[in-house]
Structures are given as C-alpha cells and as structure tokens.
Amino acid sequence: MSDEAFPGRDFVEEGRKLFAGYCDFMWAASKIDGLPPMGPPEIAFAGRSNVGKSSLLNALTNRKALARTSHTPGRTQELNFFALAQEPPHERMRMIDMPGYGYAAASKTKIEAWNTLMRGYLRGRASLKRVFVLVDGRHGVKDVDREMFKTLDSCAVSYQIILTKLDEVKKGEREARVQQVLADLAKHPAAFPEVIFTSSETGEGIAELREGIARMLAQMGL
Ligand SMILES: Nc1nc2c(ncn2[C@@H]2O[C@H](COP(=O)(O)OP(=O)(O)O)[C@@H](O)[C@H]2O)c(=O)[nH]1
Ligand SMILES: [Mg+2]
After folding, report:
1. Is the CB of residue 49 below 6 angstroms from any atom belonging to ligand 1?
2. Distance CA 152, CA 31 (A)
3. How far is it, in rounded angstroms, from Cα 111 to Cα 23?
4. Of 2, 42, 83, 179, which sits 20 to 30 A from 23 (CA to CA)?
5. Which ligand has the minimum distance to the alpha carbon of residue 135?
6. Which CATH number fits domain 11-219: 3.40.50.300, 3.40.50.800, 3.20.20.100, 3.20.10.10?
7. Residue 70 CB less than 6 A away from ligand 1
8. How far, in Å, from the CA of 189 to the mean position of ligand 2?
9. Residue 37: its pLDDT value, please?
10. What are the boundaries of each domain within the chain?
11. Whether 195 contacts 177, CB under 8 Å
12. CA dihedral in degrees (44, 47, 49, 53; nearest 10)?
C-alpha cells in the first residue's frame, strides 16, 4: 500500500525486507553503564512479564529462537539488544527486548533495579525512536501498564501499544479491546494513537507491525 506522504513507496514490502535479512543478538545490559554505544535507530519492546515480547521479536524476524521465550515470567532482567542489518556489519536498526514488569513475585530490590535500568535507558537515549508497549489482548490495559505509560510520558519517549495473543481473543471481543486501549491513550499525548493487534502464533498483525516500523523510519528520515 502506498502512502500519501511517500508516493510510490510500498511500506509493506519495505517492512518485509527490513526484517527478512540478517538479525542477531548483539548485547545485553544489566546496568545503565553497560549500554552499547549509540548507533542506528533503536526500537524497544516493553510489557508485563509473559505478555509475549520474546515471541513477538521471533515472529517479526521469522526466527524460532532469536529471543528466548519462556514459561517462567520474570527471568530476563536485562536489556537485550538485537541488531538488524541489511548488509552486515552495517546495522540498519536495533531492537531491544526490555525486562518485563508487573511480575508479582519480584522482590523489592529487583523492582528497584528494574526501575533504575529502565528509566536510565529511556531518558536521554537519542537513538531510541519508539517504545512498543505490549498489552495482553486477553486482559487489556492493567494498572501496571498505566504506570508504564506514565513513565514513558515522563521520559518524553514516543510509544505505541501492541495488543498480543489475538488468537486467544474471541472475534466479538477484539474491537472492544482496541477501543479500551484507545480510550486509555487519549490521556497520553506522547502515545502514538494507533493500536496493532497481533498474534505471534498465527502471524496476524505481524506484517502490519513491520509496515508501521518501516513507515516510521521513513517519516523520521532514517
Ligand atoms: N496463544 C498465544 N500465545 C502466545 C503468543 N505470544 C506469546 N505467547 C505465549 O505466552 C508465553 C510468554 O511468551 P514470551 O514471549 O516468553 O513473553 P515475554 O515474557 O513477554 O517475553 C509463552 O508461553 C508463549 O508461547 C501469541 O501470540 N499467542
Ligand atoms: Mg521474554
């Protein structure tokens, strides 16, 4: 589909190509002074533990195990960086799998460490272009998600909501779930007012997300 602002460009195809090439894990940071040097544009994926972040990264890049998926929530306590490159070693973009939040069994010390790392990264990372906040499509926006929206507002980072696990939501409930998110976001001007409903299981919404990322890069002149 071409775009009014970019006549003749096909962002579905650009998005497909962006994720079809080289992609590999490049860096893990568990402390704020351990971040990789800034380079190409970064997009980060945040969300509650078990929301489907790792699965979404795998689906986007068409890999089975690029990012580790797990049944044990709260295990990843690091920022995991993945490099995307059309021609390695020239990176085109980086994707960051952020540690999950809202894990009930997490200790106070762990939550504090998480907050420090998260805020440290979100503030003043000029190469960070957008945070995709994943919300479980079965449950909709929860208070911990709203806390995350506030953190992103306060860090002045652009963010967008992705609903996950579409395959587990009845057809008749999907539109209501999207509307709930949009209603929540109306109070958050830093949020991108568009929601994508995805399933890493069936692949629904994945091409649309790739397309959105390709268009975002074009709009930013990147
Ligand atoms: N049915 C379904 N299950 C999913 C989907 N995405 C993730 N899951 C499952 O949800 C659990 C947590 O996924 P994971 O990607 O590890 O979540 P993370 O903790 O946010 O990285 C795993 O059991 C996944 O198989 C999806 O789109 N559909
Ligand atoms: Mg994960």
Report:
1. yes
2. 19
3. 30
4. 2
5. 1
6. 3.40.50.300
7. yes
8. 28
9. 95
10. 11-219
11. no
12. -50
Atom of ligand 1 nearest to the CA of 55: 15
Cβ atoms of 37 and 14 within 8 Å: the answer is no
Cβ(131)–Cβ(43) below 8 Å: yes
pLDDT for res 132: 98
**pLDDT for position 70:** 61
Instruction: Supply the pLDDT for residue 73.
Output: 54
The per-type count for the chain, helices as H runs and strands as E runs, is 6, 7
Cα 14 versus chain centre, distance: 19
Q: What is the pLDDT along the chain (222 residues), one digit of tens a residue?
A: 557 889 999 999 999 999 999 999 999 998 999 999 999 999 999 999 899 999 999 999 998 888 776 655 555 578 999 999 877 778 899 999 998 888 767 788 888 888 899 999 999 899 999 999 999 999 999 999 999 999 999 999 999 999 999 999 999 999 999 999 999 999 898 899 899 999 999 999 999 999 999 999 999 998
Q: Do residues 125 and 118 lie in contact, with contact meaning Cβ atoms separated by under 8 Å?
A: no
What is the number of the ligand 1 atom nearest to the C-alpha of 199? 27
Please give the structure tokens belonging to residue 206.
Answer: 């994945």
Is the CB of 58 within 6 Å of ligand 1? no
pLDDT value of residue 88: 75
What is the rounded CA–CA span in Å between residue 2 and residue 16?
A: 14
Distances, alpha carbon 76 to alpha carbons 46, 54, 67, 80, in Å = 12, 10, 11, 9
